[in-house]
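Note to self: the last two entries modelled the partners one at a time, which told us nothing about the interface. This time every component goes in together.
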Amino acid sequence: MKQEYLKKFFGYDRFREGQETLVDGILAGRDVLGIMPTGAGKSICYQLPALMMEGITLVISPLISLMKDQVEALNQAGIHAAYLNSSLSLPQYRKALELAGQGRYPIIYVAPERLLNEEFLSFACRTQIAMVAVDEAHCVSQWGQDFRPSYLRIPEFIGRLPKRPVVSAFTATATAQVRDDIIDLLNLREPLVLATGFDRKNLYFGVETPKDRYAAVKAYLKNHPGESGIIYCLTRKAVDDVSGRLIRDGFAATRYHAGLDDAERRRNQDDFIYDRAPVMVATNAFGMGIDKSNVRFVLHYGMPKNIESYYQEAGRAGRDGEPAECILYYSGQDVITNQLFIENNRDNQELDEFSRALVQERDRERLKKMTFYCFTNECLRDYILRYFGEYGDNYCGNCSNCLTQFETVDVTEIAGKLLGCIWTSRQRYGTTVVIDTVHGAATAKIRQYRMEDNPYYGSLSKVPVYRLRQVLQYLQMQEYLTVTADEYAVVKLTARSAEILDGSQTVTMKWAKEQSRRPSAAEGAEPETGSRTGRRKRRGKAAAQQGGLGDSEPLFEKLRELRMEIAKEEKVPPYIVFSDKTLTHMCIVKPETKEEMLTVSGVGEYKFGKYGERFLDRIREEKRRTRES
Ligand code: ADP
Ligand code: ZN
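The predicted structure of the combined assembly is written out below.
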């Protein structure tokens, strides 16, 4: 039966990893906690059992946009669902409650603040509640990033119900601490806990250090016309700047940050979701609750404050499981910007001085790990997975490091001179001054600090600046030196520095092989780090691995047009009609009959009834056209 429902309503032939276990747990009446990365398919884990259980399922969700999207998708799949939140007027709210009371909706999304509202409570007590599903369950924990005090009242609500329903909880981010909090604070009873791996195999990870970030972003967009993606910036100012320039350069971009008024934010978000403006430039205020499945790339115009944020933001790419790219464009300034954020963070008013200091200390540590991500030579995917306590296999073949050739070099001499410079200038300066000194630059600062008189001035004039930076960063990772975590970012020696200064230790590191660096016209900006260029052909390779389109590209475009037509008629986002993945699969199967069409992943009976024939027509038409030409 569950298999049947999976196909009929959602159009899928198979469960993904973890889904079936959670569905079975719920159907057996157990509480469950599902920890799965973004895009793994958490919603089906509660939506499917909700359809099979006697009574209503309440889904508690923190964000209005998220509810709206989910309810739209369910309605498209032929499932009656509704949401109850502050976006409804009072008459609308009452109407929805009335219909709910008549048993119209098997699934109702509700905002946590509503739960103990009298009207809602009396409704909930009159009807049979089969399950309470808590989405984004980490919001209950103060250790999580998105703590929502109203989540703490969920158990109280459940306690008020005449009969305790099954309680299921789902999240994409859970360190051990958060996981324990979810179980405790939501009062889960001997829950079935299932955590699938965090790896997102369809995502490519890259780090680049272009001299001109804007040029790099622009080149990227040029190379990926028509694709939808998000560009994250660190500040509102950067968002305005980058989005303005992109629009002037002719890209269909829009923007989002907390400084815009509600109306503009909503409008821009819709433009993005409906693919009217497929490129979104935004601060981290954008994204939670955005379920857009056809996001093909997430570019970071600046490094976020920690790996948690990065993985969450990058993870918004490729939710449909198709290849997608996550590229971080790093610049040294990002560290300083983030340090300032940390020093000035007064977000949580409830913290006393002592706790605040602790939080800041933790934040600095996380920032350091994020910075190392930008400099590591190891597999980037592995680096992230290890951060979350998983072990990868050191080589993924789908990140900028795995695709770069490295060589091992002896940097003892460079290291010695860098440390010597720091020592003789009495550990007073930041990385730029140190590097400029040994490189022999003649900047105003160098003169001001009289670094021309430093014994190491110009001693490494033949080593390119970006290499010096890499060595300095490597020394920091190996704790041969440290950088103060304030806005001055002063380089200091450590207990280990002596090993290098007294010559007792040789230092070797891996760095990217120097290639003939020929910046292609499309690439625009020359990458500062030499040979991180292996990426270019990768998309083709990844696409081929996952069943690439090849000659079907025109068909894909035709189907995409049709999808847009239908989306406009139905006033829903295109990806709600069919995902990119489903369209791709259609191009491979090229179905001509209903039976064939139903074998396509994402096409269920209900959706076939609505649009199946129109898609079949387009496919037949296109086949005829190619036969004739
Ligand atoms: P999450 O909430 O975990 O981030 P979603 O529930 O939004 O993820 O699902 C992500 C995407 O995966 C959606 O497009 C969904 O339709 C698709 N999906 C979910 N389960 C399956 C499945 N068993 N087979 C194929 N696609 C699936
Ligand atoms: Zn890798």
